[in-house]
Write a structure and sequence with these properties.
This protein is an alpha+beta fold and 170 residues long. The protein has three helices and ten strands; from the N terminus they run E-E-E-H-H-E-E-E-H-E-E-E-E. Strands 3, 4, 5, 6, 7, 8, 9 and 10 form an eight-stranded mixed β-sheet that branches. A two-stranded antiparallel ribbon has the order 1-2. A hairpin with a 2-residue loop joins strand 1 and strand 2. The protein is globular and about 45 Å long.
Amino acid sequence: MSGLGIPITIRGEAPGDEETIFQLTQAAFKGMEFSDGTEPYIVDKLREDGDLTLSLVALDKSRIVGHIAISPITITDGAQGWFGLGPVSVWPDMQRAGIGSQLIRYAIAEMRERGAKGIALLGSTEYYPRFGFKREPQLTYPGPPPEYFHCLLLDGDLPSGEVAYSPAFG
């Protein structure tokens, strides 16, 4: 896979990747107006709690350049098989080169293959629709403005209720 001239490979997180993923996530979210700086700690806590369902890294020829996390979510209607996407991180000097997009597409395909029913996320109203994510009023997440909460139905019927992320998200 390649992102606009940057050849990358995507693989699952391996032992020893943890510190690089932490530093990468910290750098990717530093100074972002919507970030409170907790993203690298969330990934560590998901891993520690056994809630890191999918952890993928993107590598160029010499290093990890991107990361994506997928973790379980609960929905008040009892729907099973739903997951939260995020955070997605790419080194700041490599952002906007297609690496994050490739990680997202790969993660969606992997979760579909694993039999997931759907994926939800909190994020940009302009970026995530390109992957099929959309606002579905019957699925809600309390707190942030509702237009930033998106979901992608992979199989079955769309659930109805309030979403809760893993405890790592605080």
